Amino acid sequence: MLSLSMIVRNEAERLERCLHSVAGFVDEMVVVDTGSDDGTAAIAASCGASVHHLEWPGDFAPARNHALDLVRGDWVLVLDADEWLRPEARAPLRALMEPPQALLINLLRQEVGAAQSPFSSVSRLFRRHAAIRWSRRYHAMVDDSVAALLEREPHWQVLACAEPALVHEGYRPDLLAASGKAARLRQAMEAELAARPGDPYSCAKLGALEVSQGDHARGIALLEEGLARVGAGSPAERYELLLHLAIARSPGEPAAAAALYRQALEVPVEERLTLGARLNLGALLLRQGALEEAAALTADVTRLCPELPLAWFNLGLIERQRGRLPEAIAAYRQALALAPQQADAQRNLAAALLLAGDIPGARDGFRRAIALLERQGQPQQALALAQQAGALVRLDA
To answer: At which residues are the TPR repeats (predicted)?
Structure first.
């Protein structure tokens, strides 16, 4: 028997999609509402879930543990309302749950809107066992309790599903800004780090946030502290620390950044988790003129994640520098097929078409790029491009 376990609050817009994605896959759905004032509870009940109520305890771990105590299944799948199960993962997951020694299955999660790291790994499917409990304030996880259980009972197995199982849109920039989630995440990270000074996981998350928000000094200090403390048994944390330390070093220390990206790529994690390091190292090598390796790395990203527009755009830049215009044009077109509003890709496609001798195609491409810039509120950039392109082709023809 497989149970779905969820905690929710004011998720009326997303919950139905999540619950429909597991219909027929799970045998029961347990939803714990922590104080919604919208239609969340009613939607959960209408989808067949058992709905329970809990006053928010101020921490995700006790809330998740309360929900875990209510399920009856032999296995437990844990989702958030902004996630859903991919139908392609159902059969692989069922097969992975069959072995009697299987304890936990790590799931690949697709991160909608993530420009550089479109996949993450989450431990959200596990056998119901009295020793498995949630811990940590930020990104509550069962990993600590699983590690302790494996020390006592080493016959258990931790497995991984190669097929991406979940889709997650909670980190889309527009959703974060609208919900105020970013501020709550920072508060939770700071609290977790205060409770666990030097914890590699907390250092990785908060260090990456500081770098992304411009506080490079604190970010680098946190990332280096986490890297000094991370154990050999935590490859995902090691990779993340190296990745974000490379990102922080890249603006002023490209050689050091390249070395860190290479170290990250040596960490034994699932290939699709390494897309950020491959993509960034490829872009760095492009700037340094190391085009062959840049092309190989970026082509790997397009193979592993063909739905990532940035990878195709970067591949177009690299192929154009290599003098491979047909390949550059094909890459730009694929980037635009995935992200039609990408004005920079449209401009570069037009330039590549012009170099290839396709004057009508270049003219049309420049017109499209100018129109995109105007619609996106960039009139000065649109005017500059019109002047530059007009010196090369007649835009009014």
So the answer is: 309-342
CA distance 314 to 26: 41
User: How do residues 138-151 score in pLDDT, each as one tens digit?
Assistant: 677 899 999 999 99
Locate 67 and state its tokens: 């929900």
For the CA atoms of 304, 310, 311, 317, the dihedral, rounded to the nearest 10 degrees, stands at 170
End-to-end distance of the chain based on CA atoms, in angstroms? 68
pTM: 0.83
Query: What does the domain layout of the chain look like in residue ranges?
Result: 2-170
How many other C-beta atoms can be found within 10 angstroms of the C-beta atom of residue 376?
Answer: 12
Instruction: Match 């998740």 to its residue by tokens.
Output: 64
| pLDDT tens digit sequence for 67-82 | 999 999 999 999 999 9
Nearest to 193 by CA among 148, 171, 225, 215: 225
Residue with tokens 């970026």: 298
Fold type of domain 2-170? Spore Coat Polysaccharide Biosynthesis Protein SpsA; Chain A (3.90.550)
CB 294 within 8 A of CB 326: no
106-131 in b/e form (b: 16+ CB < 10 A) is bbbbbbeebebbbbbbbbbbbbbbee
Distance CA 317, CA 306 (A): 17
Amino acid at 304: L
Task: Specify which residues 77 forms β-bridges with.
Answer: 4, 125
How many Cα atoms within 13 Å fall on the side-chain side of residue 141? 14
Contacting residues for 22 by C-beta, under 8 A, at least 6 apart: 4, 29, 77, 79, 85
The pair of structure tokens assigned to 363 is 């003219």
